[in-house]
Amino acid sequence: MEIILKTDIAGLGYKNDVVAVKPGYGRNYLIPQGFADMATSSNKKILAENLKQAAHKADKLKKDAEEMAAAIGEIVLDIAAKAGENGKIFGRVTNTQIADVLKAKGFNIDRKKITVEDVKTIGVYKAVIDLHKEVKHPISVNVVAE
């Protein structure tokens, strides 16, 4: 018996896989629990169309992320922080501060997608923006004294 999996099942397959199982396992467990559907010709056509649309949507998201990375370019963000005489800053420069400066420049990026190295002194640091699982864009952060 062939079925189309709706969820990942350990030892059997992943979501949207068409797998062969014993009829009792499919009819008595997988289908009633909502883990699978029968692999009829119409369900296979629906699955193929859904996979095609999902691939198209994923390509569009990646393209949008690449366009955002190109728009950001080699930007250098200036962030003011209180610092001592020797250049050591009080507190931290956080990804929230970087997100606020990016928003002021017209780029609305979630703070959770920004990774910044540990900033302890005045200087230039690197931060990475995770725009897509395949698109990561580095930016420079210039920490200056207030």
Written description of the protein model:
There is one protein chain. The protein is an alpha+beta fold and 146 residues long. It folds into two domains: 2-67, 3-Layer(aba) Sandwich (Ribosomal Protein L9, domain 1); 69-145, Ribosomal Protein L9, domain 2, CATH 3.10.430.100. It has three helices and seven strands, in the order E-E-H-E-H-E-H-E-E-E. It has helices at 23-33, 41-72, 95-104; strands at residues 2-5, 18-20, 36-38, 76-81, 114-116, 123-132, 135-145. The chain has a four-stranded mixed sheet. Strands 2-1-3 form a three-stranded antiparallel sheet, with helices on both faces. A hairpin with a 6-residue loop joins strand 5 and strand 6 (123-132). The longest helix is centred in the middle third of the chain and has 32 residues, at 41-72. It starts with a strand and ends with a strand.
